[in-house]
Amino acid sequence: MSYDALFSPIKLRGLELKNRVVLPGMNTKMVKNKHDVGEDLPAYHAARAAGGCGLNIVELVSICPECHAYLYLGLYNEHHRDELRKVTDAIHAAGGKAAVQIWHGGFVPEEFFDKTNKLETPDTLTVERIHEIVKQFGYSAKLAVEAGFDALEFHGAHTYLPHEFMNPSLNKRTDEYGNQSLENRCRFNLEVIREMRKNMPEDMPLLMRLDAIDEMLPAVTTQDETVQFINWAAEAGVDAIDLSRGNARSLATVYEVPPYNLEPGFNMDNIAAIKARVNIPVIGVGRIVDPALADQLIREGKIDMVAVGRAQLADPEWCNKSKEGREAEIRRCIGCTEGCYDKVIDPKAKHITCTRNPALCLEYKGLPKPETAKNVMVIGAGIGGLMAAEYLKARGHNPTVYEATDAPGGHFVLAGKAPKKQAFTDAVMWDAEECKRMGIEIKTGVTVTPELIKEVKPDHVIVATGAHFVKPNIPGLDTAADVFVAEDVLAGKAMPHGETIILGGGGVGCETAQFLIEHGVTDVRASWTPSVSATRWACCARCSSTSSTPARPSRRAAALRSPPSATTRSPMRSRTRPRRPSRRPATLTLSSSLPACTPARRRI
Known about the structure:
Elements: E1 10-12, E2 15-17, E3 21-23, H1 40-50, E4 55-62, E5 73-74, H2 78-93, E6 98-103, H3 127-146, E7 151-155, H4 161-166, H5 182-198, E8 206-211, H6 223-236, E9 240-244, H7 252-256, H8 268-275, E10 282-284, H9 291-299, E11 305-307, H10 310-314, H11 318-323, E12 375-379, H12 383-395, E13 398-403, H13 411-415, H14 422-437, E14 441-444, H15 450-456, E15 460-463, E16 467-469, E17 483-485, H16 486-490, E18 499-503, H17 507-518, E19 523-527, H18 534-543, E20 552-554, E21 566-569, E22 576-579, E23 587-590, E24 593-595
Parallel strand pairs: 3-4, 3-11, 4-5, 4-6, 6-7, 7-8, 8-9, 9-10, 10-11, 12-13, 12-15, 13-14, 17-23, 18-19, 18-23, 19-20
Antiparallel strand pairs: 1-2, 16-24, 21-22
Helix pairs in contact: 1-2, 3-5, 5-6, 12-14, 17-18
């Protein structure tokens, strides 16, 4: 299929871009010690530029030490400038164009602060400090120009400081920067735009990121006000508006990093309504993973350019494959957010990851070829086994995949049965087809035994057999008739009725709750697990919000005979905890699992 609109050039001031695809700024955690750039960040951007992206926007950079938390790059001294030159050089060498997000975070990055940081919000700033921050934005713009960037982006969305000034509930000032009028609330942002513009070449474009809709706050900037501000910003020197969605109240996992339960293009109606009333190009943001949808939105005039973020994390060749008619070869993002969001907030993670692309942030290592190709037995044709086989083959080894059931797919096929998760099944089926395309044999209906391993004599064995169900220690569980395993429910082998309690409030538990609600179960309670990520509960709440009886978190553990003092044992812990007696629910669904095994890693 031809995507002429998506891959048509566009000119922003003096900068001509070869197509309409933008890699938006996304936090990668690849900054070193807050101030340095290593081999990984330039290689990450070079891979997407070589993959055909029109414009790479480098993740946000702090304009001053006060807001420069450990997650972020800085751009307020010449050392930062020289470090970022490594990134622009890599992008240019790969045939791309580079921009950078210039940023002050306000209160948002506070949880990542160290002793060098200071909280700054509209209500805490003196007028003198406001003027100083405006100048710092300008100086950061000057350094960005010297670092070789082709365009700059002023980040004014997601409850960062510029958004805080514009929002009437976050700005309580009573002076010329206060919330008495739209002009006052916009004054800081317009001063920043003019100061940045003064420090940029005349033919260099200035972009601005803004929320297409302000929401989930006590008072919001209306659409009319947003349109008015954009028109003022255009007069002040902004050349394109990058319309996103989300703020600190909506959780990054709802809109800023939208999970699978949000439809692709979920933000486009908001954006189109604004685009119809402004006179500068609009970049659309909103979980665009399909080139056909991206092209359609541009053809219909809803947007001028499209942000393709996590889809390019999953496959850096997304643009080239789309343009060349190889859409079937695209390794697609599934919206799981497990690596691109969860790793950002995980203090132990060194960088973001991707369920679909194990090489993300490791592009600089390449795929080393072995001196001698090895014959590798991969046990399990689920997502892990199939992807292991693909990378082994790409490196020059000879993998063979063995699967005990009659078809590949494993638990990812079952995961796709949950509401709005068909992409999970599609993903693992894509990997099965990719293995065939690469010439990797998948032997189904074969149970691997020690005898088979001795017969085949592989050089190495990779065990990728996934997880299995773990039965919790609950009185009455063995004799109760209305107890089901979540896997059987999702597979259509069993269906609870009446009040249903789900033990296990992780991803499977939440998704099973959604599944039951969609199938008419009237009362569903999922046990709350403190370690469950916000993504899972946000998805559960959102997917069940249209039901008259949405899923609710429950802290009670069911004892099926209601003894005077029931106990439950968590499958993941050995400690037994006393619980209050609980009346017996109509049905109980169990969703806990443990890995079948944890094989040691071996270098191949």
